[in-house]
Amino acid sequence: MHRTVAALLLGLALVAGCSAKVETGTAKPVGGDNPPVAKFTTAPADGAVDAPVNVPVQVTVAEGTIDQVTVTNPEGQAVAGKLAEDKKSWASTEPLGFGKAYAYAGRATGTDGRPVDLKGGFTTLNPASQVRATLFPGDNDTMGVAVPIKVEFDADVSDRATVQKALTVTNSAGVQGSWAWLNSREVHYRPEKYWPANTQIHVEAKLYGVAYGGGAFGRADVTSDFTIGRNQVVKIDTPSHQLVVQRDGQTVATYPASFGKDDDPALNTPNGTFVVMQKFDTWSFDNPQYGYTNVVKKWSVRFSNHGEFIHENNDNAANIGKVNSSHGCANLLEADAKAYYDSAMVGDPVEVTGASMTLPAQFDWYDWQIPWAQWQTMSAL
């Protein structure tokens, strides 16, 4: 009896021991069938189309850290990028190309120790047109104190506000200025008063991928670093028959001159603040309306696209310093014209007073003919 009970109990114990062993062997590992906790997020999203080219690609991971990320272009080249120190995000550091398909690849390790792979891709926008911009002054130029900063486009810009937000000007003098749209293809920047002498200026036009409106986008960024030179201003009071050159407000030269005819407003050297635009050792003057073509003069300095120059005219020597007899230019004797020419710099202001006619603000560069309050209203922002 006792042996039978003992045997039965032993058998039950053995059965129980076998059951426990089987249950332990089939237990599920940590995590079980649950998905890995790490999760990638990308911008642009997987499958996105018309993605911007000038916004950095962003890859982030939640509940994990990034082991590696690559974004490749159709040629298989990797887009430059940088992984954050905490390894939770990656961002591209170079612009993308228009109309290209990019592929994501990468891996992250979750807080649960399990890996997650990144796969997918997106396509960038393919603009209807790409608009080129040019910037003036250029790198390493030295300019006069009245020089405007100009950005010119090879097509009309309809979304001027968006474009203007991409333009910045900084300078060593801390001078503030304002952009003004002169037309749909040209925007200028100037301060309220002339630039301080010796100012270093940096201009950035971050226009690549910027929407100009109408399906047009910026073709490329452009930048410039240039310098403002000495302060030199030409002052012309037409009744005086003298051209005065000032440096830092002090007169350094006075030249006898003959300006445009006083009795004919169409032939005046007109009132206004102009800017030296170009210099030529010789220049051929043509005005068939007044009976002359191919009249070559030395030491010619253009200060308006209306047609005004400061130049040598020894043929008019009898009137220089005495009578205003030109067709609008400032005539000087040859030696004086050469001396002035050598001192002149593109961007120098030329201030004209005393004439019977004031030139409308429509002939380049007319920036300083527009009052400051009006100039500010010409901004798109």
Automatic annotation (TrEMBL):
Give a yes or no for keyword Lipoprotein in this entry. yes
GO CC annotation: what is one? extracellular region
Q: Name one GO biological process term.
A: peptidoglycan-protein cross-linking
> Could you tell me which pathway this protein works in?
Cell wall biogenesis; peptidoglycan biosynthesis
- Name the catalytic site residues: 311 (proton donor/acceptor), 329 (nucleophile)
Q: Which GO terms describe its molecular function?
A: acyltransferase activity; peptidoglycan L,D-transpeptidase activity
Extract the signal peptide range: 1-20
InterPro entries from the UniProt entry: Big_10 (IPR041280), LD-transpeptidase (IPR050979), LD_TPept_cat_dom (IPR005490), Transpep_catalytic_dom (IPR038063)
Pinpoint the L,D-TPase catalytic domain residues.
Answer: 232-353
Top-level division of the source organism's lineage: Bacteria
Q: Transferase among the record's keywords? A: yes
Q: Cross-referenced SUPFAM superfamilies, in alphabetical order?
A: L,D-transpeptidase catalytic domain-like
- Which keywords are on file for this protein? Acyltransferase, Cell shape, Cell wall biogenesis/degradation, Lipoprotein, Peptidoglycan synthesis, Signal, Transferase
Name of the molecule in the record: Lipoprotein-anchoring transpeptidase ErfK/SrfK
